[in-house]
Write a structure and sequence with these properties.
The structure holds two protein chains of two kinds.
Chain A lengths: L2 H5 L2 H9 L4 E2 L10 H11 L14 H18 L7 E4 L2 H13 L7 E5 L4 H12 L3 E5 L9 H7 L4 E7 L11 H11 L4 E5 L18 E5 L10 E5 L25 H16 L1 H22 L3 E3 L10 E6 L4 H10 L2 E2 L1 E2 L2 H4 L6 H5 L4 H4 L2 E5 L6 H21 L3 H10 L1
Parallel strand pairs in A: 1-11, 3-4, 3-5, 5-6, 6-7
Antiparallel strand pairs in A: 2-8, 7-8, 9-10, 10-13, 12-13
Chain B lengths: L5 H8 L12 E7 L4 E10 L2 E10 L2 H14 L4 H4 L4 H7 L8 H19 L4 H6 L11 E3 L4 E2 H11 L4 H8 L9 H14 L8 H22 L2 E9 L2 E8 L7 H16 L5 E4 L2
Parallel strand pairs in B: 7-8
Antiparallel strand pairs in B: 1-2, 2-3, 4-5, 6-7
Helix pairs in contact in B: 1-2, 2-5, 4-5, 5-8, 7-9, 10-11
The chains are: A alpha/beta, B alpha+beta.
Chain lengths: 415, 281
C-alpha cells in the first residue's frame, strides 16, 4: 500500500477505492497508463535490458524499439523526418531544452515574447532570462482566453530571439492558432525562433508541424496515457540549439544520457494509440465534455462557463461557481470519488488564484471557485451523468455555508 | 493533497452551526471575497454569556472547519472566557492545521475579535486588553496591500504563534503571499518584535561564524595578549568552535580552564548559548 493511501481517512477510502467508483476527470494533470502501453514497455524492463548503443546482438531489440518509437512520435507530430525527434524526460525538460538551447545559439538578441497564460515551465524559464538582462513581453488574452494576435505581432522586433506560445492551454483548453502565429513571427523576423509548448495538445488534437513554420514543439508522455518520466521535443531541421545535458552521443548529441528505452517505447505506443483514437477524441470525448458542460450549467444556478471559445481541446471545460471556494468543492467532489482540479489559491498552497484565470479577467466572484474537468477516452457516459447529478446537491450544501446569501439569491432569481 | 486531520475532515463535511441569525447581538466579520476567504460570525448573548453562535464562510475546507469549531468553542462561554481564544487554540482544537493553512485559524480569531470590538467599544480598556498588538505604534497601517493585512494583524500572529520568519507570517496571515513587495517590511516587523522581546533572531551559519570571529578578535584576544598569549580560530562545526591557544597560553597548564571559563563563557554570552569550545593541535 502506498504511503499516501495510509494517510487517507478510511471513510474516504470507502467512497473511492473500495467501491471502485472513482471518476477521474483530471486528465490535463495526468492520465492513466493504457494497458497496451504497459505491455509494450514490459519486455524492456525485464529481459531486453541491453543498452541500445552496444554492439552485440543482444542490443538489437532495444535499439530497434527506440527506432520504431521515434518513427511513431514523428508521425504523431506530423513531422517529416524522425531525425527531428529528441526524447526527453518530461514536458518541462522539453521546454527548457528548447528555450535555453536556442537562446544560447543566438546570444546577441535579447528579447523574448511569450504569453500571460503559459505553463510554469515556460513562464519561469522566461522569467529566469529576465533576471539575466533579457526583455520579456507577456501577451495577454481576452475574457475567453483567446490570445491577442495583434499585440503579439506588434511586439516582434529585430532583436526578438524567441517567441514561445502554448498550443493549447491546460486550464481552459483554448487552442492557439500556432501555424498562423508561426507565419506572423517569421514574416516579421525570419530569424526569430518559435517554440510551441504542445503538452496539452498532444493526443487531443492532430499536430501537423510538417507544413508550418514552427521551429520546435515539446510534449509530455503522461498526458496521453504513457507513464510519467518521458517526453519529446520536435526540432525542425533548420533550427539550431545547444544541449542542456552534455555527455554521450545519444539523441544526436543534443540530449546525453542512456536512452530510457522502456518509457520511450511506451510513449511510442501511446502516440500510435492517440493517433488511432483521434477521431474518437474529437467526437465522442467532445460529446461527453459538451454534455457535462451543458448539464452543469443547466442544473447549477451559480455556475458560469469560464471559456466558451470556439477552438478548445475536446476534453476540457472550466466552470466557475460563484461565491463558493474551489478547494471546498473539490473536497466534496472527492467524497463522491470525483477527481477534478481547481484554479483556486487554496489548492496549490499559494495564496493567489490561477494566473490563467486572472489573465482572462474572470470576475472575482467566480475566480476562487473555478473547477476544471478534463476527460479522456476512458471516461464513460454513466460517469458524466453521475457528476451532472451530484453537482447540484454539492452546490446546494456549499452555497448554504457562503456568507454571500444576498448575492446568491440574486443569481437564483435571475435563473 | 492536504494532510488534514480527521477533525478537520469531519468539520468541513458536517459543519456545525451554519446559517444566519436574524436577532444576533454581535456580528464579527473577517476576510473578503477577493482575497479568497471570508467569515461572518453571529453571536446571541444572554447577559455576558454566549447563548448561541452561527457562521457563514467562504473559503476552503480548513476555513470552514475553523469557523465551525470556533462556534463550538464559544457557545456557552462568557465573553471574558472567549476573549482569550487565540488562533492557535482554534488550530489545536482541530488537531492541527497544515502550516500553509494556519491563516484560516487566524481568520476565525479575527472575526471573534471584530465581534468583541463591537461589544466593548474600541476605546474601552477591555478592548485594549484583547487587542494584543495595541503596542504597535501605527497598528492599523496596511503592510500587505494585496491581502490588506495590517501591522496589528501581523504582530498578533507573531506574538501568539511565535513566528520568526517571513514565510511563517505569510502562512499565518497571507501577508507577502502575492506580489511579495512587503516582505522587507514584514522582516523588519519580525526583527523589531523579537528585539523588543530581548531575543535576537536566529543567526545563519555565516553570521554566526562572523560573530564568533568578531568576539574572538575584539574581546578575547586582547585579554590573552595582556598575559603574553593569544588565540587562533581554526574551525567552526555547528556549535563546536575549534581554537588553538598560542604564545604562553599554548603550554599553560590552566589552558583548559581558560578555554571553559573564559573563552567559552564569553562566546556563550555574546553569540549562542549552545557553543562549546575545543582546543585543537
Amino acid at each position: 500500500m502506498g504511503k499516501w493511501q495510509q494517510k487517507v481517512s478510511p471513510s474516504r477510502l470507502n467512497l473511492t477505492i473500495r467501491d471502485n467508483k472513482m471518476i477521474y476527470l483530471d486528465n490535463n494533470a495526468t492520465t492513466q497508463v493504457d494497458e497496451k502501453v504497459l505491455a509494450e514497455m514490459l519486455p524492456y524492463l525485464k529481459g531486453e535490458y541491453a543498452n541500445p548503443s552496444s554492439m552485440y546482438d543482444f542490443a538489437k531489440i532495444p535499439a530497434q524499439a527506440l527506432k520504431e518509437a521515434r518513427v511513431k512520435v514523428r508521425d504523431f507530430f506530423g513531422a517529416e523526418d524522425e531525425k527531428e525527434i529528441f526524447f526527453t524526460s518530461c514536458g518541462s525538460e522539453s521546454a527548457n531544452m528548447a528555450i535555453k538551447g536556442s537562446l544560447a545559439c543566438n546570444k546577441e538578441k535579447k528579447h523574448i515574447i511569450t504569453t500571460k497564460v503559459e505553463h510554469p515551465c515556460v513562464m519561469n524559464t522566461c522569467k529566469s532570462f529576465e533576471k539575466q538582462g533579457y526583455e520579456v513581453d507577456y501577451i495577454g488574452v481576452n475574457s475567453e482566453g483567446v490570445l491577442d494576435l495583434d499585440e503579439l505581432k506588434s511586439k516582434i522586433r529585430k532583436d526578438t530571439a524567441l517567441v514561445s506560445v502554448m498550443w493549447a492551454n491546460n486550464e481552459n483548453g483554448v487552442i492557439n492558432p500556432v501555424g498562423e502565429i508561426a507565419d506572423i513571427v517569421k514574416s516579421r523576423n525570419s530569424e526569430t525562433i518559435f517554440y510551441v509548448d504542445g503538452v496539452q495538445a498532444a493526443g487531443k488534437i492532430p499536430m501537423e508541424v510538417k507544413n508550418t513554420k514552427i521551429d520546435m514543439v515539446g510534449i509530455s508522455g503522461h498526458k496521453f496515457h504513457a507513464p510519467k518520466g518521458v517526453g519529446a521535443l520536435y526540432v525542425n531541421k533548420g533550427c539550431r540549439i545547444t544541449p542542456l545535458i552534455n555527455g554521450g552521443h545519444q539523441e544526436r548529441g543534443l540530449r546525453a544520457g542512456t536512452e530510457n528505452v522502456p518509457y520511450i517505447a511506451g510513449m511510442g505506443k501511446a502516440a500510435e494509440l492517440a493517433m488511432d483514437n483521434m477521431k474518437f477524441e474529437l467526437t465522442e470525448v467532445k460529446r461527453l465534455r459538451d454534455k457535462l458542460e451543458a448539464g452543469i450549467l443547466k442544473n447549477v444556478f451559480n455556475s458560469r462557463l469560464n471559456s466558451s471559445a470556439q477552438d478548445r481541446v475536446p476534453n476540457t471545460t472550466n466552470i466557475g461557481f460563484e461565491y463558493v471556494e474551489g478547494e471546498l468543492i473539490l473536497l466534496h467532489l472527492s467524497d463522491y470519488g470525483i477527481c477534478a482540479s481547481s484554479g483556486s489559491a487554496c489548492t496549490s498552497g499559494s495564496l493567489e488564484p490561477s494566473h490563467v484565470l486572472r489573465a482572462m479577467g474572470i470576475p472575482f466572484t467566480a475566480l476562487h471557485g473555478s473547477i476544471r474537468f478534463s476527460l479522456s477516452r476512458f471516461n464513460k457516459e454513466s460517469e458524466i451523468d453521475l457528476v451532472i447529478e451530484k453537482m447540484p446537491a454539492i452546490m446546494d450544501k456549499l452555497t448554504k455555508i457562503s456568507p454571500f446569501q444576498e448575492e446568491l439569491n440574486k443569481l437564483r432569481a435571475r435563473r | 493533497m492536504w494532510d488534514y486531520s480527521e477533525k478537520v475532515l469531519d468539520h468541513y463535511r458536517n459543519p456545525r452551526n451554519v446559517g444566519t441569525m436574524d436577532d444576533a447581538d454581535l456580528i464579527g466579520e473577517a476576510g473578503s471575497l477577493a482575497c479568497g476567504d471570508s467569515l461572518k460570525l453571529f453571536i446571541k448573548l444572554d447577559g455576558n454569556k454566549i447563548k448561541d453562535a452561527k457562521f457563514l464562510t467562504f473559503g476552503c475546507g480548513s476555513a470552514v472547519a475553523s469557523s465551525s469549531i470556533l462556534t463550538e468553542m464559544i457557545i456557552g462561554k462568557t465573553l471574558d472566557e472567549v476573549k482569550k481564544i487565540t488562533n492557535k487554540d482554534i488550530a489545536d482544537q482541530l488537531g492541527g492545521l497544515p502550516q500553509q493553512k494556519m491563516h484560516c485559524s487566524v481568520m476565525g480569531r479575527e472575526a471573534l475579535e471584530d465581534a468583541l470590538k463591537k461589544f466593548y467599544g474600541e476605546d474601552s480598556d477591555e478592548w485594549k486588553e484583547i487587542d494584543l498588538s495595541g503596542k504597535a505604534e501605527s497598528a492599523d497601517k496596511v503592510i500587505c496591500n494585496c491581502f490588506n493585512v495590517t501591522e496589528k494583524q501581523i504582530l498578533e500572529a507573531i506574538e501568539v504563534n511565535k513566528l520568526k520568519t517571513v514565510e511563517e507570517v505569510t502562512d499565518y496571515t497571507k501577508a507577502g503571499g502575492a506580489c511579495g513587495q512587503c516582505k522587507g517590511l514584514i522582516q523588519h516587523i519580525i526583527d523589531e518584535y523579537w528585539e523588543k522581546q530581548g531575543e535576537a533572531k536566529p543567526l545563519t551559519q555565516t553570521q554566526k561564524v562572523l560573530q564568533i570571529n568578531k568576539v574572538l578578535v575584539q574581546q578575547i584576544s586582547p585579554q590573552l595578549q595582556k598575559d603574553g598569549g593569544d588565540i587562533e580560530l581554526i574551525d567552526i562545526d555547528g556549535d563546536k568552535v575549534k581554537v588553538k591557544l598560542t604564545g604562553v597560553c599554548s603550554g599553560c597548564k590552566n589552558a583548559s580552564m581558560t578555554l571553559k571559563n573564559f573563552v567559552e563563557s564569553i562566546l556563550k554570552e555574546k553569540v549562542d548559548s549552545n557553543i562549546e569550545v575545543e582546543q585543537v593541535g
